[in-house]
Amino acid sequence: FGIQISGAASVNISKLNTTALVDGVTINNGATGTRVTVQAINRANQVSAAGAAALNLKAGGSGGGGSNASVGGAVAYSKIADSTKARIEDSTLVNTPQVAVRALDGSLQIALGVGASVSTSTSGGQTTIAGSVSIAQSRNTTEAGIERSQVDGGSFSGTGSDPRVLEVVAYDHT
Questions:
Q1: What's the rounded Cα separation, in Å, for the pair 117 and 56?
Q2: Which strands form 165-172's sheet, in the order they lie side by side?
Q3: Which residues, 6 or more positions from 158, have their beta carbon under 8 angstroms from its beta carbon?
Q4: pLDDT of 43-66, one tens digit each?
Q5: Phi and psi (nearest 5°) for 139?
Q6: Which pTM value belongs to this model?
Q7: CA-to-CA distance for 54 and 106, rounded, in angstroms?
Q8: Are 108 and 42 contacting, i.e. CB atoms less than 8 angstroms apart?
């Protein structure tokens, strides 16, 4: 009789907070004008990997017989709850022709479980069992905004396209 058992587990849990904030200020560079960029970027990589193998290499022979079993299993679990925020709050921006507020989440999440079981017995009963489970949960939030603030893009009296730009972007590519 022979039995081989193998198992593995991997668990990753993360909660990252990435924040870019302009709060309670006045930005005024006079007639020159000022470009303002508030940007929060999350590029976290989270990999949860588990692997297990059970091998039964019992050879047959005289008087062999008997039972053989091999069991292999793996579990990989990954949970991520990141917060990525870019904000302008309670502020005054004067003569700011280009304002960008960006919250960008390009994080990577991988959960991988591999289980293997092999029996090479040539006699007797054989049982091989293998299994794997991979679970990935994502509860990320990505926010960009301007609240309780005044933004003055200055004046434009030239020809051609107006160079004043107000950009507020929240992008999550988890």
A1: 8
A2: 35-42, 98-105, 165-172
A3: none
A4: 999 999 999 999 887 665 555 567
A5: -135, 55
A6: 0.80
A7: 37
A8: no
